Amino acid sequence: MAYDFPISSSQLSNLNTVTLSLTNTQIKALNVTAVTVVAAQGAGIVIVPVQATMKMIYGGTNAFTGTPTMFIQYGTGVGTNGIFQVSSAGFWTATQNAYIIPFNTGSSLQMNASAVENVAVMVAASSGISGNAAANNTAEIQIMYYTIAI
User: Fold this and answer.
1) CA 19 to chain centre
2) Which of 12, 106, 139, 147 gives a 20 to 30 Å CA spacing to 93?
3) How does pLDDT run across 12-35, given as a tens digit for each residue?
């Protein structure tokens, strides 16, 4: 049985935000190599993402191709231990700047401690992203999170 707990005022006062720029090369490899957004925080500590937003920055030449599901996840196994996920239909193929606001599952997660304690939060894709021969499209991802040790 999973339980939903409200965010306490102490957790809100410890809310962190991290923004990461993704290169064109990193984007095209997200289905093979997940990229660390928040580094593991140490033994017994869990990163609790509250919200994630992604911006595709169109370089002005040509679009990417591919519409994978995008994952914010614990650890490196692409698509495993997912925290947030969203279908990206139209996001990568846009010929203008585009946003995913916000990533959201709308449900609780129940995972073994080894899947979440002292584990990084990563971004990954379910399938390949290609195209953009000019290699001038990039992205930024921002995650708000707090940490707990329980």
Assistant:
1) 11
2) 106
3) 568 999 999 999 999 999 999 999
